[in-house]
């Protein structure tokens, strides 16, 4: 059987006038990068996910990478990640210099809390649940394990926008959570896009600066960024 891929043109054509108006309003103003449309989107995303802060970044992989960097995860650290995920989750861990440690998945195809404990060493710094296919991991158990072992939780919720666990949005259970707006994602855009959400002011400031070449709110370059 041949399964057709996501029908991108149909999605655009179904709302063509609305999309065209949105695109031309940006293009006519020349307002491409870090402009009011992004701020509006970040505010909406923060509200929708019930997070204090949402920071738009270039894609979902950068979102994971920047969240890990902001949490000071790096060389010598281990991050526990499920064996079933997209390659971007372990790749982002690799790119901060840390080691991805694969844990088994349960019957729900998500990170199995029982397997996490077997993977913890004295180098483990983060548990990275990945919220896949509209499902959400057993976050109560994962939070318990993280608390008991003094570990951070950084969620890869690239596919999880809108998924709820006990009425709380995927991506909002740990220090930071990340989303992808790749065109075929739950909320797809015309190209690449991603975001980090957090309630932590330091993570917010660090990710905001790093995504804008180290610039802070006053426009000064106060740190190294990308
Ligand atoms: C689970 C997961 N993590 C990370 C990513 C990376 O997102 P992006 O393609 O926006 O970099 C994706 C999707 O591609 C994904 O499905």
CATH architecture of the domain at 53-210: 3-Layer(aba) Sandwich
Number of strands: 9
Bound molecules: pyridoxal-5'-phosphate
Major sheet size, sense and barrel closure: 7 strands, mixed
- Globular, elongated, flat, extended or rod-shaped: what is the shape? globular
Describe this entry's structure for a reader.
It is a single chain. The strands form 2 sheets. A 7-stranded mixed sheet has the order 1-9-8-5-4-2-3, with helices on both faces. The protein has 8 helices and 9 strands. The chain has a domain at 53-210: 3-Layer(aba) Sandwich (Aspartate Aminotransferase, domain 2). With 226 residues, the chain is an alpha/beta fold. The protein starts with 7 loop residues before the first helix and ends in a 16-residue tail after the last helix. Helices cover 36% and strands 17% of the residues. The model has no long low-confidence stretch (mean pLDDT 97).
């Amino acid at each position: 059987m041949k399964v057709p891929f996501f029908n991108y043109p149909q999605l655009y054509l179904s709302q063509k006038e609305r999309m065209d108006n949105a695109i031309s309003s940006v293009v006519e103003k020349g307002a491409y990068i870090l402009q009011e449309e992004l701020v509006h989107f970040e505010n909406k995303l923060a509200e929708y996910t019930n997070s204090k802060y949402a920071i738009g970044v270039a894609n979902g992989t950068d979102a994971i990478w920047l969240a890990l960097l902001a949490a000071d995860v790096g060389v010598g650290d281990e991050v526990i990640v499920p064996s079933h995920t997209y390659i971007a989750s372990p790749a982002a861990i690799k790119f901060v210099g840390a080691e991805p440690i694969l844990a088994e998945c349960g019957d729900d195809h998500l990170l199995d809390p029982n397997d996490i404990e077997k993977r913890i060493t004295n180098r483990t710094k983060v548990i990275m649940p990945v919220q896949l296919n509209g499902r959400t991991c057993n976050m109560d158990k994962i939070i318990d394990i993280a608390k008991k072992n003094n570990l951070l939780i950084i969620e890869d919720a690239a596919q999880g926008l809108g998924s709820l666990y006990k009425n709380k949005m995927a991506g909002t259970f740990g220090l930071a959570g990340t989303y992808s707006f790749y065109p075929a994602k739950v909320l797809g855009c015309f190209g690449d896009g991603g975001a980090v959400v957090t309630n932590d002011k330091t993570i917010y400031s660090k990710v905001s600066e790093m995504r804008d070449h180290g610039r802070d709110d006053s426009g000064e370059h106060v740190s190294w960024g990308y």
